[in-house]
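As a next step, the fold was encoded as tokens, giving this record:
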Amino acid sequence: IPQRYNREMILEDMDARGFAGAYDFFYLPIDFSTTHSVGYAFINFVSEGELARFKSVYVGLKLSEDSPKVCAVVDAKVQGKLKNVDFYRNSTVMGMEEKYHPVMLENGVRLQFPRPTRAVGPVQRRPPRAGGQMKH
């Protein structure tokens, strides 16, 4: 995923390619020191069939001519909508602006993401890379 893509851009792309309702959880991790995506997302599909269809469309796809990145699909350690929700609801990302939060859906409709069950700590910001400079 191109670093300058945000959550809404990816969701809009997926829905425009016919995947509205095909997934019930989405999270695009962000590097909060740059506010850019880290280049991958976590998506839970409602069925193996939808996952196979997604792979047939996105594997090898280049989302932007401005980025050399092409899409690949691999299994995540955490599997299933409920396990992902449980994992992320107490994540430090829940202390950030809503635009950075994971999204939970049912039949393509966004649902309120569950509130944390405990206090969430501050987001750990990575120091800038050695020799790297932020472009404005």
